[in-house]
Specification:
elongated; mainly alpha; 4 helices; binds zinc ion
Length: 180
């Protein structure tokens, strides 16, 4: 096995690194989960980034329909910004996950990022509901608030699967560090 601190190769069975003396953790807990979810984060991040940028470009034309200083227009800009920022966040979270998945001490960092992703999903959901309502008011459409909310919650729960799995992997690492 390899020491997490100094990367020295150490024969199995030892409890401490022969070079730096730090405690050795067998099997890198949560490694597989963080790595697989990390890869998916990058896939969704890259896909999300390209689709949100192309969406933002095409929405520039839709702006023509929206009143200039309207709530719907402001919310649309915020929502597009959140989507682009979220996609970049997913790529960062994915790269960190793949790069550091075997390091038990990175558990807290992974947990932190998983929580930021979940907060981003909640904020985006609230903005998208507000946007949908503002849009129907500004354009005089009739949309059902309850249907919108149910749709957004369902979509958010689906989107939360990935950060929750990442969080479980992180927690495994944190628990291992606490247990030792
Ligand atoms: Zn070491």
């Amino acid at each position: 096995m390899v020491c997490e601190k100094c990367n020295t190769e150490i024969s199995t069975g030892l409890k401490f690194c022969t070079k730096c003396g730090s405690k050795l953790l067998e099997g890198a807990p949560g490694k597989g989960l963080v790595k697989v979810t990390g890869i998916l984060f990058i896939v969704f991040g890259v896909f999300g980034l390209s689709s949100s940028i192309s969406n933002a470009i095409s929405n520039v034309f839709v702006f023509g329909d929206l009143p200039e200083f309207s709530l719907s227009r402001s919310l649309m800009i915020i929502f597009m910004g959140l989507r682009i920022a979220g996609s970049i966040l997913y790529i960062i979270v994915g790269v960190l996950g793949i790069k550091y998945c075997k390091y038990t001490e990175k558990g807290k960092l992974f947990k932190c990022f998983a929580i930021i992703v979940i907060i981003h999903i909640i904020v985006s959901s609230i903005v998208s509901i507000l946007f949908s309502q503002a849009l129907s008011t500004d354009l005089g459409h009739d949309t059902n608030l309850l249907t919108t909310i149910i749709g957004v919650i369902a979509w958010s729960l689906f989107g939360s699967i990935l950060p929750v799995l990442y969080l479980i992997g992180a927690q495994k690492k944190i628990n291992t560090l606490r247990g030792n």
